[in-house]
Each structure stands twice: as C-alpha cells, then as structure tokens.
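Allow me, if you will, to draw on your knowledge of protein folds for a short while. I have a record of one protein: its chain in single-letter code and its fold written as discrete structure tokens. I remain grateful for any guidance, and I place the record below:
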Amino acid sequence: MSMTKGDSYDSTLKRFLDVIGSIVLLIIFFPICLAVAITIKLDSPGPVFADTPERVGKNGKLFKMLKFRSMIINAHDMLRVDPGFKTLYEQYKRNSYKLKEDPRVTKAGKFIRKHSLDEIPQLINILKGDMSLVGPRAYYPDELTDQQIKYPHTKSLVKKVLSIKPGITGYWQVSGRSEVNFDKRIAMDAAYVAKRSLLYDLKILLITPWAMITGKGAV
C-alpha cells in the first residue's frame, strides 16, 4: 500500500512536532500541573488522575488516556450502572455523550474542565505515541458503537477518523462548537483528517490557548 501525503506527514513532521512540542509544554505547564494536583486532593477524596475506561486510538487500538480527575470517584461507572443516574445517562446518550450540567463534576473540576486543564497529562500520551498534539477526539468504545447506530451514515467518517491518532486539541475543539451532536462532530474530525498539514496544525495550536483561557464551547 502506497503512503499518502498525510501518512508521510504523520510519520515525519507531525511526529517531530508532537515530541518536541509535548516536552516543551510539559516543562511550561509543570507548575500548573502541580497546582492542579494539589487543588484536586484538597477539594475532594480520590486520586489525582481520572480512572476512566480506555479510549479508541489509531486503527481502533485501545489506550488509557491520562486526565486530571474533575469528577467524583467512579463517575464513569456510576453513570452507567447506578439507578439514580438512569435519567442522566439517557440524557447523556441523547446529547451525543455530552452533559452541560453534570452533577458528578467536583467544585474544582468545573474550573479545571472549563479551561481544559484536565487534558494536560495527555502530553505523556503523546510521548508514548498514543496521541498527537492535534487530531480528532479520542472516543469511548461504547460511544462510537451507540452513535453509529443512531447516525448510521457516519460509519465511513468514523473509519477515516480512526486512521490517525487522536489529539489533545483539534479543529472542533477550538471552533467553539463542542456542543454539536456526534454526526456534526465526527464530520469535523474527518474534515481535519483530510486537511491535516503542518501549517493547519500550527494554526490550531495557536488558537488553542485562547480557547483554554476563555473556555469557549467547553463542557
């Protein structure tokens, strides 16, 4: 199978940008990471990092995505199996696996999530080769299964999105449209896959700090 222009970029310049960029950002964000970790421990009982299920990476490979904990412990499982969260879970699925008002989020977690500080540990995932600085959203397996049943026309888009590594940031994340339904979001992710290049990635990276500061579109 011949290598496309995008594949060549992924294995050379994009990977170089990922490694150098993640190392530099880890150094820059270290004081913030320390402050976030202390805040999480003081705010609520539980570990500093979120204990969430694996996400779907490139070519469908599952990986453990690192995130600072912004919810109560066992939040993921509680939403799915606790009878008290049944109505909330149905709303969660209807809203394409997004909740604007989520009672599982801690006080500190609201600030952490609004400014995407929970995503910083994913820089380690980049160094490990599971993720990129810029790319599609890293979806949960059940999310992809359920949403493709709900939106069957998205199957080809999902296949395209899973052809590359997911990213910490991306086109739809900085667009201020994080509340759009799955079919729109996966289309935006697929559009990024087709358009990805060094200049396009740099453009998204330059926009990302403003999106983090303002919290625009974050949920």
Remarks:
- The chain has a mean pLDDT of 89.
- The two ends are 40 Å apart (CA to CA).
